[in-house]
Write a structure and sequence with these properties.
Blueprint lengths: L3 E3 L29 E6 L15 H7 L7 E3 L5 E3 L2 E6 L5 E6 L13 H12 L14 E8 L2 E6 L32 E7 L3 E6 L12 E6 L6 H6 L5 E2 L4 H5 L5 E7 L2 E7 L9 H9 L3 H9 L4 E2 L24 H10 L7 E7 L3 H15 L4 E7 L1 H10 L5 E7 L5 H5 L16 H12 L3 H17 L3 E6 L1 E7 L2 E2 L15 E2 L3
Parallel strand pairs: 1-13, 2-11, 2-12, 16-17, 16-18
Antiparallel strand pairs: 3-4, 5-6, 6-8, 7-8, 9-10, 10-11, 12-20, 13-20, 14-18, 14-19, 15-19, 21-22
Length: 505
């Protein structure tokens, strides 16, 4: 039987609650001067290699290895200085001063300058149309270069979460094509890409911090979930993230299984502009029709962190466990709500699901069976990932979808702001005056207790209004050939390849 390495998530005292420390797996490191590893990906990078424009979580988790901000998260969830060597926050919370680290180089060999930092922040704060690439940057009043090693960021209003957004990638002002020629400061640098086939990375030997252990990484696209175990067992790939329990059981004893959580909100996301989902009674009926434990049992041997709203457990003080019981399976109640809404004979709708994400496909199939009990037919439409990004996420041309939404930073804002009525990433078209007021109040206050209270009000509204059919933060199983070790889970949807190493035989 394959051994599982259970990895802990240690989270910051401010944002997260401490979880249980479970046993880790390790081995002695071998010489790595010419080491290499091939890692399987469920999908190619489809949106952009530009870190400021990338939308897909699968893209951002890879770019984590190429780019860094003034600060960055570590595996324990702490924000640590990166391109900056130190930072200070003024007493009024409106001025952030960063001292740049000496000698930090971009992958092209050029030194990072204060002008590059200012350019990177300004680029995300002002796109010329009033829609900043990083929404939190709309609060920036000015970015000033005080001297060659000091940057000052002035805010219009104090923001206790702002430091987390300084993880935004620093890129060279001279790079005119970051979407195809990514140049960052991270432990790995971009070498090449063959669309729908592979991405090649190479260790950056002039990295300012602890160097990566493995010299060369090939990220191989394995879009067919049925071939993942075969590619692992056959040696075509050495590692795959987010395998299913079924795939895991097909693997030989050559693999270690690391277990953690995905740090995302999996749900049946409903287009609230689509009839009948405009009616809250219909949305609530679907919620009452779902048996989450059955989903956990079928998908992952009973594992899964139940969700009742759009915040997952890693966000300790913001996570509201009590919302998990707002809807428990009640077929009678679901049918009554449908009848009240004029759908006593049920209805039919389509669920768009990215075909390369097997956990979401499996979840959709289980949901479809559960909805049959209340007379509702859910037709599953498997689509390619690039089509999901364009049709569902960007153009909002869908009725429902099963997907996982991640947090782009260590903030509750990243999870909740998207449901504001006029948010550009409010792809479900949720509209609520009460929600708009609550999220506005949360973003406006500098008092942490008040901010927490307003965020919880947002979560409660999403649950009460059944904005979506919330399911879980999925367990994550990572298969890694025993020739390697060092895999670590983060409290964000990222992959840190620099910690991997070859085990000495």
């Amino acid at each position: 039987m394959k051994k599982r390495c259970l990895k802990p998530l240690f989270l910051t005292a401010v944002l997260f609650s401490l979880t249980i420390a479970l046993t880790g797996c390790s081995g002695d490191k071998a010489s790595d001067s010419s080491s290499e590893i091939t890692i399987g990906l469920a999908q190619d990078i489809e949106d952009s290699l530009d870190p400021h424009k990338a939308v897909a979580a699968g893209t951002k988790e890879i770019l984590f290895n190429l780019y860094e901000g003034l600060v960055k998260p570590d595996a324990d969830g702490n924000l640590i200085d990166a391109v900056a060597s130190a930072h200070e926050v003024s007493e009024d919370g409106k001025t952030y001063t960063f001292t740049l680290r000496d000698g930090v180089k971009f992958h092209d060999g050029s030194l990072v300058t204060a002008d590059d930092v200012k350019y990177s922040i300004d680029r995300c704060a002002d796109t010329g149309n009033g829609d900043p690439l990083v929404s939190a940057f709309s609060n920036i009043e000015s970015v000033n270069v005080l001297d060659e090693s000091t940057i000052e960021v002035n805010l219009k209003e104090a923001d206790t979460e702002f430091l987390a957004y300084m993880t935004t990638a620093i890129i060279p002002a001279s790079n005119e094509t970051p979407d195809t020629n990514p140049i960052g400061t991270g432990p790995y640098k971009y070498v090449s890409r063959s669309p729908q086939e592979e991405i090649v990375l190479e260790r950056f030997d002039e990295y300012w911090g602890t160097p990566a252990n493995i010299a060369n990484i090939t990220l191989k696209v394995i879009a067919d979930p049925d071939s993942i175990a075969m590619n692992l067992n056959g040696g075509a790939i050495d590692m795959f993230m987010r395998i299913t329990t079924g795939q895991m059981n097909e693997l030989s004893d050559e693999f270690e299984i690391y277990e953690g959580t995905m740090n995302l909100v999996q749900a049946l996301y409903l287009n609230n502009d689509f009839e009948p989902f405009q009616d809250v009674r219909v949305r609530r009926a679907l919620c009452y029709a779902v048996d989450k434990q059955e989903i956990f049992d079928i998908l992952s041997d009973g594992k899964g962190s139940e969700l009742g709203s759009s915040v997952f457990p890693s966000f300790g003080k913001y996570y509201m466990e009590e919302l998990n019981s707002v809807y428990t399976k009640d077929t009678k109640k679901a049918k009554e709500l449908l009848a009240e809404a004029g759908y006593e004979n049920g209805f039919t709708f389509s669920v768009a699901v990215p075909s390369n994400y097997q956990p979401h496909v499996d979840t959709a199939q289980i949901l479809a069976q559960q909805f049959k009990e209340i007379g509702v037919t859910a037709n599953i439409n498997l689509i390619e990932w690039d089509s999901w990004l364009s049709d569902v996420y960007t153009n909002r041309e869908f009725e429902a979808t099963v997907i996982g939404v991640d947090a782009s930073s260590l903030t509750a804002r990243a999870l909740l702001e998207r449901f504001q009525s006029d948010a550009s990433n409010n792809f479900i078209n949720f509209k609520s005056d009460a929600y708009d007021t609550a999220i506005t109040n949360a973003l406006a206050t500098a008092d942490d207790d008040e901010k927490t209270r307003y965020y919880k009000e947002c979560e409660t509204i999403l649950a009460d209004e059944a904005a979506n059919v919330y399911i879980q933060d999925l367990p994550e199983f990572v298969a890694l050939n025993k020739k390697y070790a060092g895999y670590e889970f983060y409290p964000l949807y990222v992959q840190d390849f620099s910690k991997l190493y070859v085990v000495e035989e």
